[in-house]
Request: fold
Amino acid sequence: MQTDQRPLVAVADGTVLDEILRLAAAVGCEPECVSDLGAARGRWARAPLVLTDDESAASAATADLPRRTGVLLVRKGPPAAESWKHAVTVGADAIVALPDDEDALLAALADMVEAPEPGGGHVLAVLGGRGGAGASVLAAGIAVTAARAGGRCLLVDCDPLGGGIDLVLGAELSEGLRWPGLRIGSGRVSMSALDDALPGTRHGEGALAVLSCGREGPGPDDAAVAAVVDAGRRAGRLVVCDLPRRRGPGTDAVLERAGLVVLVVPAEVRACVAAARVLADLGDHAGKVRALARGPAPDGLTSDDVADAVGVPSLGWLRRDRGLGRALERGVFDPRPGGGLATASRAVLGALPAPDHPQ
Reply:
């Protein structure tokens, strides 16, 4: 990270310092540590964040430091009466009491690694109206299409029984972590750390990072998915999540954050009935759902017919791409720009609402 973006740590308590360094390492943050605030006068005004403790803050009165924002007083356990006096002396914005306030400190350190992009990134969920609807292929197509257009994307596989979305991309041999090997113990992770750990590909000016489920082991839970999706949002990425048809571990975290949920529905009567059941299972999130009809239509159903049968607005068609199935079996994922998958992917991208501010 850039020197000017390093937080300044002036902490005398060795136990508190160890906790700060542990949390900083968890998010890839490299703080600048000094012995006391007086010795850091040159960095006091420039550092984006200052962390101090009771003993160091007490010395601030003699250091004659100017007032500034972005100062946290960190201590172990609940604040004592003297802690509040020290916080006033140093002009701290808040007292961080460990371990209860660990998440707040972790968030502050993570933001030093990559400052949140204004507005944040989009979160898009894709799931099938019935088995074999093609949701995983669409999710991969959307991510690749956005990357080809110069975007930076994160593709997240949330379906542990789907075989792994890296297989769709032909990236099963690519180096990098999958869900069974990715451990997020702190509840917070930076996008830069994910970029370093995950398989990724470049597409001109765009880039795609992929977090796939593996062929064995458990899938992700809500906390892990939330941490990954939030990292992508903070970094301004398009986060595309491939969801299972039934809600389970990891799905609620995505649904809460998604601005759009795409339900892929083959243009068949039975598939429409199945998709309506999937929609009902989404509960309060059903208002975000749009139907994408997948052709061909054996009996002439239109995309509006499919959407009406399911009970949601239509996003149009996902038309058949000749040769795509054979290419996928051979480990080749290269959607033709004018093909049905790329066309549907652009339609989905165009329907994304303005993103919420990342947390």
Notes: The chain has a mean pLDDT of 91. The CA atoms of residues 324 and 335 lie 8 Å apart.
